Amino acid sequence: MNLTKASEFMAMYARPLDRRRFELLTGEGDREALLAALNAYRNPDGGYGHGLEPDLRSRTSQPGPALHAFEVFEELAPMTAPEAVALCDWLESVTLPDGGLPFGLRVPDPAGCAPFWADADPGTSSLQITAVVAATAQRVAVHDTAVAEHPWLDRATRYCLDTLRTKDELHALELTFALWLADAVDDTEAIALLGEHIPENGLVHVQGGLEDEMMRPLDFAPYPGRPVRSLFKPDVITAELRRLDGEQRDDGGWRVDFASYSPAAELEWSGYATVKAVSILTRNADR
Q1: Short-list 148, 161, 224, CA closest to 191
Q2: 35-38, Cβ contacts within 8 angstroms, sequence gap of 24 or more
Q3: What share of the chain is helix, strand, coil (3-state, %, to 5)?
Q4: How far is CA 205 from the centre of its chain?
Q5: Residue 226 β-bridge partners
Q6: How far is it, in rounded angstroms, from Cα 82 to Cα 75?
Q7: pTM for this structure?
């Protein structure tokens, strides 16, 4: 991994939010500046929109962007922000009676939005989106007591842990995000149950995605020292880390392996992917 080239890539191509995330990740950042960059996507209701989720360009607050907001709140640690618990309040307001979040709410401005966001059913709970939002919020809760004690987080977590135990088949993304949540709350029984859906090589095809789009071991278990890592042999993880390192492009950045739905999204995902790759490689190198 060439950090100098990665930094140059971020300066040339990434949106301000991901530049601030990269700076903090590499030891040169400012937490207040990162929070300010995130708040550019915030709505008065406490939710987030305005393209924070690159394939969801709508200005409206949506469950999907909440994931990316919680990613930032996690990265701010040990600093906490009142916006995090306000986001929990907003999520509680759109949670359905069974405790799950809808995949998406009504989108009045669908330009540049992926069809699966624009056409989502706001009246049906989604294990996929609830699990990924709750998993990331659980990681914030480690250092933010207000998030940890918020009733929405407990409701959403219970919905996911109950639902994953009743589904015989899981979409690759449902599987990934359910594992993230089980790992975040140290539910070893759920991790073992979900692990039965993953072959030894750790590759699970993403149904409905690109022909070669896969969820890989580092998608399921990106960081060392977590219970979910027990699902994969050490040599599998080592090979995947080498693969990720080798995917750095000549321009210094990484790319996503899924389709984007607007020119802006394609560019924004590359900055996001570069932050993610550097985070994974750095944290694994430390062990």
Answers
A1: 161
A2: 35/72, 35/76, 35/79, 35/81, 35/83, 38/69, 38/72, 38/83
A3: 55, 5, 40
A4: 18
A5: none
A6: 15
A7: 0.95
